[in-house]
Amino acid sequence: MLKNSKNSLFGLPEEVKFCKNCVESNQRFMGSAQLNIKKDDTKEGVDFDDEGVCLSCRYFEKKEKFNWNDREKELKDILNKHRKSDGSYDILLPGSGGKDSQFLSYILKYKYKMNPLTITWAPNMYTDIGYKNFNTWISNGFDNILFTPNTKVHKKLTQLAFKNLLHPFQPFTIGQYNLAPKIALQYGIKLIVTGDAYVEKGVGGKIHKEKKTSSELYSIEKNKQTDIYFGGVHISELDKYGISKRDLNQYLPITKEKIEESGLERINLPHYINYNPQNNYYFCVEKMGFKPNPDGRSEGTYTKYSSLDDKIDCLHHYTWFIKTGRGRATDDAAIEIRNKIITRDEGVALVKKFDGEKPKKYLRDILNYLSLNETEFEEIIDKFRSPHLWEKIKGKWHLKHAVWK
């Protein structure tokens, strides 16, 4: 755990560094789905080597030398191990209907001839384009379980997470991750396939040792089930907000003991197949009928094909910009630089132009969902501006450090 200081909130390093190859900074950290988060706690973030290059960029250099044919053979061996001949589901694929889940489900079913069950934890508030893409996904030949959590409970958890952690996506992320193993066990499925690849995104400190498979399915040790927080509030205190332990059942992880008994495992497909977000987008437009953001680009970035499902998506990226000084455009540009789609100079210019753009399109809906007026919203936002990143000049907030400075 990184240590806090007077000048740095969330345990972030006081010395701000930017990767010399991409646009990522050392301020990025993990913590999205952690159930033991109290106020201002984080897990490790981006690591840099002695030459000032982030480990994710170094990983992409290694990717160029991978034998992808051998890796695909490994994938086929794993899939064959779990393939069923009785018509039942042999893999579980969590997804929203976005470009990545559409891509993964298509190749698993139509290329590798698996029988996937797809599952979706419903967004806080569907966007029109997100709901259209979700229906397009299912209409291409996939069975799906859409789980919609209790709106009253989920909304309250989201309000607490925003006010206490400036993390409005925390309840969604926790629910999304912890639902998958439960559904898999209910259907007798022993393999969960995801598109998550932290090694490519630069998070997790020294997590860059690749894992082919994992049984660490967001489970928890039995003796730690009482040491859980939601939105910075201990589970024993949530009854003050009208939330009982019974209301939290679908958010809670199953025990490690149950995972080990079941033999359930998870693989990350990017370990076996070389692809990138932009290629996934073009693939899904052609094969599945996927539609991009009708506005031409998403708020806070220059791309038009990622994180389109939820009206709170834009707020999620904006809050990370407030806490870390790096936002949605930084995420997108870093990946595209590593994939040699754009240059670093182009990435820097795009980050300068779009990073930190305040959500406008769905702001009224967001404020209503959080039960806040705009003044209250801004006051909460400003409480989470770390002094080592932000300074106020003539009544306006400015970043002290930026990749273009």
Explained architecture:
This protein has 405 residues and is mainly alpha-helical. The chain folds into two domains: 156 residues, no CATH class; 204 residues, HUPs (Rossmann fold). Helix content is 38%, strand content 9%. It is built from 14 helices and ten strands. The strands form four sheets. It has a three-stranded parallel sheet. It has a three-stranded mixed sheet with strand order 4-8-5, covered by helices on one side. α3 packs across α9 and α11 runs antiparallel to α12. The protein is globular. About 3% of the residues have low confidence.
Biggest pleated sheet: 3 strands, parallel
Q: How widely separated are the two ends?
A: 29 Å
> Rg to the nearest angstrom?
21 Å
Strand-residue fraction?
5-15%
Number of strands: 10
Briefly, what CATH class of the largest domain?
Alpha Beta
Uncertain stretches: 204-209, 211-217
What structural class results from the helix and strand content?
A: mainly alpha
What is the typical, i.e. mean, pLDDT?
89
CATH topology (fold) name of the largest domain: Rossmann fold
What descriptors fit this protein?
three-stranded mixed beta sheet; 14 helices; 10 strands; single chain; mainly alpha; 38% helix; three-stranded parallel beta sheet; 2 domains; Rossmann fold; 405 residues
